[in-house]
Amino acid sequence: MSIFKRMSTIFKAKANTALDKAEDPRETLDYSYQKQLELLQKVRRGVADVATSRKRVELQASQLQAQSAKLQEQAQKALSMGREDLAREALTRKSGLQGQIDDLTAQHAQLQGEEEKLTLASQRLQAKVESFRTRKETIKATYTAAEAQTRINEAFSGISEEMSDVGLAVQRAEDKTQQMQARAGAIDELLASGALDDASGTSKDNITLELERMSSNSDVENELAALKAQIGGSEAPKQLSQDAPGAAQPAQPAQQPVQQPARPQDGDVR
C-alpha cells in the first residue's frame, strides 16, 4: 500500500470518527422527515398537474362535442332546404371534429389513469411519512431518555467531564488548604521556639511573658491595698514581693547601718 493511499485511509477514518461524534440522531431523523415531506409535496403537485391537464382535455372535448352537435343540426337544416352541398360540408367538418374528440377522449383516459396512480402513490407515501414521523418521535424520545440516563450515571460515577473538572477543583482546593495549614503550623512552632524572629519585634519568650504577668499582678495588688488604706484610714498598703506574686508580705523594719571601724592612717601605730 502506497503512502498516499494510507494517508487517504487514515484521513477518511478520522473524518468518519469526527462525523460520528458530531452527528445527532435526532437531527438526522428530523432532516429525513423533512425530505420525505418535500417528496410528498412534489407528488401532490404532480397529482394536481395531471388533474389540471385532465380537466383541460375534458373542456376541449366538451367544446368539440358542442361544435359537432351544431354541425349536425346545420347539416340537417341544409338538407331540409335542399342544400345537399352545405349538408355534405357540415358533415365533413363534423367528421374532422370527431377525430379530435376521439383523440381527446383517449388522452383523457390516459391522464385519468395517471392521476389515479399518482393519487394512490401519494396516499401510500403520506401513510409512510406519517408512520416514519411516529417512529421518529419514538426514537428521539428513547434517545433523549438514554442520553439523560447516561449523563446521570456518569455524574454518579464521576467519569463525566463536568464532574471530573469539579473533582479536580475540589482536590486542588483541599491540597492548597492542607498546605497552608501545614505552613501556618510550622511558622507557629518556629516562633514559639525562638528559631524564627518576629519581624515586628513583638515576639517574646515564655520567661518574659511570665515575668510580665507577675509584674502586672503585683501592680494590681498594690493598687488594691492602697484603696483599702484610703478607705480604712489607718491601714498602710501592703506591698507584694515580686518573688512571690499574689501573696502580701509584712513590711520589714529598717536596719541600722553597721559602724565600720576607722581605718588607720599610714602614720598611726598599729
What does this structure look like?
With 270 residues, the chain is an all-alpha fold. The chain has 2 domains: 3-157, Helix Hairpins, CATH 1.10.287; 165-196 and 205-232, no CATH class. The protein is 78% helix and 0% strand. It has 5 helices and no strands. The protein has helices spanning 3-22, 25-80, 84-157, 161-193, 206-232. α2 (25-80) runs antiparallel to α3 (84-157). The longest helix has 74 residues, at 84-157. It is rod-shaped, with a radius of gyration of 61 Å. The protein starts with a helix and ends in a 38-residue tail after the last helix.
Structure characteristics:
270 residues; 78% helix; rod-shaped; Helix Hairpins; mainly alpha; disordered C terminus; 2 domains; single chain
